[in-house]
């Protein structure tokens, strides 16, 4: 590929890295053709220089340094997955249940409005009685990115720069974010992974089950029981020995734990606690002492294993952040941007009836797979319902806030100089205003940062009503 040889994005040494490089270039080419060439050819059908100019002057200077940094050091991406993402998810769950309590107990008008009152974000705006990603914020974000990374001569190319800004902001960020915020998008993914309702579990089909033992009497039955017990013990001992051997070998290769990875499992425990409702979901459920005791046991075991987990998890994650995983991520992005291939018809969103059917199928499938004891834990009042596991992601307006915080976290990881308090010096000679910084590593600190914003007065009034009625 001529373009690949003349303008490499990152050094490709192995076969997997070369394949990843080609896929990234192919995705960029498809995006340029789909979002620019389709309308630009109507104004200038004979002009073939715009796309090569955008690729040479805009995309390569922008993507090249970012991909090269990730190629040389994957630690920031590992920190994003280990620390930022679970913190954002836990905060989303806590804010959702607080907004849900306000709607249920205080009679608020709309769930998304109550959510936004507790977590106001500049990246979201209200459109048609719901909240979506703001195209203006995304355009300002991309403009800051361009001003930071482009040279003065490249930044001065107004036509190419404006085209790239609007395409990346509106056609990519806003369009992809809109799909990511839809509940039916998550329902489709989960149903593809778990199967449709009524599908037998993996390994539970009749053809995969071993034949039953024939009935025996007397000493023959005792011999069969002894043989079965012996085989089970040998299997358990073999698995334990293999696991301990692998653990010792891996720990010997792990570097010392970093201070920022101290108690690295705490954000994930916060996600699990908020999702399972161990603290009562903002007063909507009554947490039982048995649930708190069981969860406390999990936290104690995790705290005892913290010295091992703090070294093991970051090391394993950095080992798996390789070119093979990058190929899968690029393929996933291509399926999201072009579900029907290119060239192909644009994707059609499900109708409200189809979206409702997907939601019902998802809840039915989750109800089939979740054990009854876990149902009693998640919903102690009604053990036959698992709606509490699905509800936090069933509102598009609330999901838009989660997607917006994820966007900010990714920007803060890839471009930390863009979210600093002081305007950084840019290669284009213009001061770049900082965007919203990614949340810190603890859920409590995230709450404090949210409260420092200009929270709507409506939130305090609703909280007072909740306290009066609780």
Walk me through this protein's architecture.
This protein has 470 residues and is mainly α. It has two domains: 1-41 and 48-72, no CATH class; 73-198 and 246-469, no CATH class. It contains 20 helices and two strands. A two-stranded antiparallel ribbon has the order 1-2. β1 (124-127) and β2 form a beta hairpin. α8 crosses α18 (396-414). The protein is globular. The model is unreliable at 1-5 and 431-456 (pLDDT under 50).
Distinctive features:
470 residues, two-stranded antiparallel sheet, disordered N terminus, 2 domains, 2 strands, mainly alpha
Specify the helix fraction band: 55-70%
Low-confidence stretches are 1-5, 431-456
Helices and strands, in order, run as: HHHHHEEHHHHHHHHHHHHHHH
Strand coverage percent: under 5%
Number of E-type strands = 2
So how many helices? 20
Q: Could you tell me how far the N terminus lies from the C terminus, measured between alpha carbons in angstroms?
A: 66 Å
User: For the report, how would you describe the main beta sheet?
Assistant: 2 strands, antiparallel
Q: How many structural domains? A: 2
Strand order in the largest sheet: 1-2
Shape: globular
Class from helix and strand fractions: mainly alpha
Gyration radius from CA atoms, angstroms: 26 Å
Write down the overall mean pLDDT. Answer: 78
